[in-house]
Design a protein that fits this description.
The protein has 457 residues and is α/β, with parallel strands linked by helices. Helices cover 44% and strands 17% of the residues. The chain contains 16 helices and 13 strands. The protein has a seven-stranded mixed beta sheet with strand order 3-4-5-6-2-1-7. It is flat and about 80 Å long. Bound molecules: ligand FFO, guanosine-5'-triphosphate, potassium ion and magnesium ion (MG). The site of potassium ion has 5 residues, from loops. It is found in: Cytoplasm.
Length: 457
């Protein structure tokens, strides 16, 4: 249930023990100032004006115990993030100060905010559009500068704008058609060809926006890349060279890596989670057996498999056995140890047009590896007309509905169905577009969208 009249409170900063030197507790609502005044003790001669920081202490009004030394920032309605009275208490970081201050706020009548409730209020009170609010969640979760840039574009309204425009044009069309339903005799007949062209244009614009979904997904969630291959081909060496760390243990003993080792990288703006895995082979060793099983799992769940081959050994039966179940997966062949004398690899290279050569122990071939990965990623992807925006899953699904409805309008025209049929589908498209921009929203949709936010946002 959305309740706007209440005053909500939450910790607005990350709660990580012994990290972060400052923690913020935030209040929003009609009682924000009154609650803060009951628990804050500062200089008497200082007035509470909007956006003026006050220095003082948070004191428990019942026991008179001093809880923390703080800075207090009032942002008075409508000049605040939520457009309500907001008071921020900038406390010492860590676990205790913020939690105790939050408890005090709750004991004074504030309600613990639901996840995303501050931002929800910003939307309901007209500060933010829905797409802007969704961009905030993306911005907070961004794992690369490009992902952050994309979210910021959404926050600035660049996503809502073209969709609103499409919706407005649909509304114009609807008005034109409905006029014929009501006053058919007084108006010239509908220019069907013109409507068909207008619909084509709108469908095309929707397609361009829809084509940003893949890129958005990629920038938001990134890629999971699994390094797999026989024992000792140099998988862990590759992980280390790539991440420029000693993350994984490297020895000349086959079966060194026993478990999946993860590392996070950013390549060409795409966050990449790299998984080094245990070398795959038949083994009686109980621990290694489990490791090999985990390798298979990692390979099957990865967006891209880096299949590492020992250049000196060439393509062996063991390689074939590992490759067999991975055949149909997106896969890049990494031929490692090219610094050593190698047999003729031409037949293998012909079989794998997507390959790179590396000498992981020496750190060579990493740039080429990244290049090859980016090429694979961008292959077959619709070019997004240089839009710097990208839609999320919810927006994609809803815009697809709008696209289908507009297609059905065209079909209704083609089949010469009565005008009512045109308007039904046109209305459905308008509703779907409005669900993306927030112009047509139900409470349950809002609840679902904002439940994915973190508390305090
Ligand atoms: N301490 C703190 N930092 C923060 C936030 C916050 O809530 N608190 N934000 C929260 O996400 C973001 C900034 N967003 C904000 C948006 C509007 C206003 C605000 O007070 N707007 C008023 C005043 C503008 C002015 O003086 O010109 C207004 O628009 O009327 C504050 C923060 C990031 N940093
Ligand atoms: N000459 C040469 N040796 C390499 C290269 N890459 C790795 N090695 C060596 O190969 C041996 C095995 O390397 P690892 O990285 O542990 O191989 P792995 O595939 O992770 O092995 P497991 O975890 O046991 O499956 C080590 O002695 C490395 O130093 C390379 O490019 N050239
Ligand atoms: K090894
Ligand atoms: Mg290893």
């Amino acid at each position: 249930m959305i309740q706007l009249g209440t005053t909500i409170a939450a910790i607005a900063t990350a709660i990580v023990p012994e990290q972060g030197s400052i923690g913020i507790v935030r209040l929003s609502g009609p009682e924000a100032v009154a609650i803060a005044q009951r628990i804050f003790r500062g200089r008497k001669d200082r007035a509470w004006s909007s956006h003026q920081v006050l220095y003082g202490h948070v004191v428990d009004p019942n026991s008179q115990t001093v809880i923390d030394e703080v800075l207090l920032l009032p942002m008075l309605a409508p000049r605040s993030y939520t457009k309500e009275d907001v008071v921020e208490l900038h406390c010492h970081g860590g676990l205790m100060p913020v939690q105790q201050v939050l408890q005090l706020c709750l004991s004074q009548g504030a309600k613990l905010a639901q996840p995303g409730e501050f931002t929800l209020r910003a939307v309901l009170n007209g500060r933010l559009e829905l797409t802007q609010a969704e961009s905030i969640a993306d911005l907070v979760g961004a794992k690369s500068p490009q992902a952050a840039q994309m979210a910021l574009a959404g926050l600035q309204g660049k996503l809502a704008q073209p969709i609103r425009q499409i919706r407005a044009q649909c509304l114009d069309l609807l008005a034109e058609i409905e006029a014929r339903l009501d006053f058919a005799d007084d108006l010239p007949p509908l220019a069907e060809a013109g409507i068909h062209t207008a619909l084509n244009q709108l469908l095309e614009e929707l397609e361009i926006i829809l084509s940003t979904a893949n890129r958005g997904e990629l920038l938001r969630t990134g890629l999971k890349v699994a390094i797999v291959g026989r024992p000792n081909v140099g998988k862990s060496s590759l992980l280390n060279a790539w991440s420029r760390t000693d993350r994984a243990i490297v020895t000349d003993l086959p079966g060194t890596t026993r478990d999946v080792v993860e590392s996070s990288l950013v390549v060409g703006g795409i966050p990449i989670q790299v998984l080094d895995t245990a070398g795959m082979r038949d083994t009686e060793d109980q621990v290694e057996k489990i490791g090999v099983e985990r390798s298979r799992q990692a390979a099957s769940q990865a967006d891209l498999v880096l299949f590492v081959l020992d250049a000196q050994a060439g393509w062996t039966e063991g390689d074939q056995a590992i490759y067999e179940p991975l055949k149909s997966r997106p896969l890049l062949l990494v031929i490692n140890k090219i610094d050593l004398a190698t047999p003729d690899l031409t037949p293998i290279l012909e079989q794998f047009p997507c390959h790179v050569k590396t000498a992981a122990a020496q750190g060579t071939g990493i740039t080429e590896l990244e290049q090859a990965i980016l090429e694979q990623v961008h292959q077959g992807q619709v070019t997004a007309a240089n839009l710097d925006i990208a839609i999320n899953q919810r927006q994609g699904a809803t815009l697809t509905q709008a696209w289908q409805s507009l297609k059905q309008v065209q079909q209704a025209i083609a089949e010469q169905l009565p005008l009512d049929f045109w308007t039904i589908d046109l209305r459905a498209a308008i509703t779907a577009l409005g669900e993306v921009t927030g112009e047509e929203l139900t409470e349950s949709m809002l609840a679902r969208i904002f439940s994915q936010f973190c508390i305090g946002k």
